[in-house]
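Bench notes, afternoon.
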Amino acid sequence: MTLKDPYNRPVSNLRISLTPACNLSCIYCHREGEKDAKAPLSAADIAEILRVAGGFGIRSVKFTGGEPMLRPDLLDIIRSVPRGIESSITTNGTLLTSLAPDLRNAGLRRVNVSLDSLDPETYKKITGTDRLGDVLEGIAAALKTGLTPVKLNMVVLKGINDHEIDDFLSYVRGNRNLVLQLIELMNFNNCDYHGDLNCLEDSLAARSTQIVTRRMHHRKKYCLDGAEVEVVRPLHNTEFCAYCNRLRITSDGKLKPCLLRTDNHIDIRGKKGTELEDLFREAVRQREPFYK
């Protein structure tokens, strides 16, 4: 049974934060709105959530954080994903090199790697660490083990990394298993680096040899001489909301119907069976476009 909200938007995707902890200190991080997170959900709780999600026709799950690879039971969590649900993970990539083979063997399908600069000094300024080399090795390991396509999530920061976009295009060019995602900064922490991506997207469109509109998110993919790039713009974007198919779960066990709201979370920690199913239905009932 597929869940549909009051705006006839089907829910087919689940995003689960596994921990608020991270080994980087990115200047723009909003930690998915988790300011005072409790202990993360147990692997058993997550397995039950995934079981119920599968019964509702959820087709994909993405594990996030914080940094999800800090969870010592990560492989057990991935193994608990039911058949018929594709699993992926968003990671900063610093721990990916050693874990990539085990992640693939556990059933993980692909990875998104957060990478905001290819310049060591800029990377250190953004993240507070000098681990760019570890991240690049992690990307290579993911490609080698078949965790593909590898999507690189670059948050565009005005005056810091916005001049590096062509460098990123060169990095992914010629490799069909690398896709660049340029992400609009969600300015939750009074961060001064938010930039308007309208001009950027117009420039990409003008330079593209092909533009494809993705069915799932109705997002455009720009093909520039062997490089694939998507622009993710959640702010003031009615189309982003109109095609939203996702429910989120915070690391401390709250169902989150909308990325941009924090006032309608539903507590599902420890819930099972029909009670958990009813809470899923309630979360979907509360879904509405943030931008209409």
